[in-house]
Amino acid sequence: MLRYMIFFCLLLISTAEAEKAVRGFNISQSAGGQLNYPGALFTTHFFYRIPLSEKVGILTESTKLDIGLCNEFAPAFENPGIFLQIEPIAFFDVAVHLNYVYFYKGLGFGYIALDSYKSKYDADAIMDSTQKNEHGLWLRLSPTLKGMYGNFLFANTFTMHYFTMQNDSYYLERITNSPLAKNDYVLTNDLFILYSFTKPLIGGLNYYFHAVPQSETRTHRLSLVGIYNKKIMDRTNFSAVFMAGSYLEHDYYKMKDVFGALQLQISYRFGH
Length: 272
Prior knowledge:
CATH topology: Lipocalin
Largest sheet: 12 strands, antiparallel, barrel
CATH class: Mainly Beta
Radius of gyration: 19 Å
Strand content: over 45%
Structural class: mainly beta
Distance between the termini: 44 Å
Helix content: under 10%
Shape: globular
Mean pLDDT: 88
Oligomer: single chain
Number of helices: 1
Number of strands: 16
């Protein structure tokens, strides 16, 4: 079973440090993996950044508009798309993604039809299920509030996902690992409370919530998180995020089922 996970890994650190937005093209690439749910994810974002203010100050220097292309690839799916992210003030931003979704069966994690929301979807339950290729659209809206007080940082990202698939049946949606209907919503929320130990090293807690409003699917998870964020060259930034925790509530995972995840990312800004 593959479970999609995006860390909001730079949450926020550039804003907390009031990093000045610079006009130009940027690219970021990341690779990550996780345990319970097991999975792997490779992402690419290529975008153009437009600063929104020339004013000096912690609330305005980082304000920006990013617009560009994105792609997410995993053993279960590939999702090319477009995105827009706007930060009108340092403590708030909102991102919109529109992706074409393609689930493929070639690596053993294809589209699996289910009978209803209540169908079992753990690894043992779907082991012998028929898999096939399928496609659809995925729209998500993600506002984020963030801030800093002394060495403490916080960020909260609420995301509304909307999926519409070509097939009419219920199915196991591989991105959020949820039983969904043909046209359906998933709500997720990530709360981070972090402490800056040194300039490149930040650690703290993450509380994750996940719900499918039309069903009884609910997930609550608490994790320790460590973030290393370092400029390694003038226009190149490296970050690493590690998470380890357990489930407070899930359809089949228990507290003893340890969650772990690691993501590495390189970002590069073109030009001078």
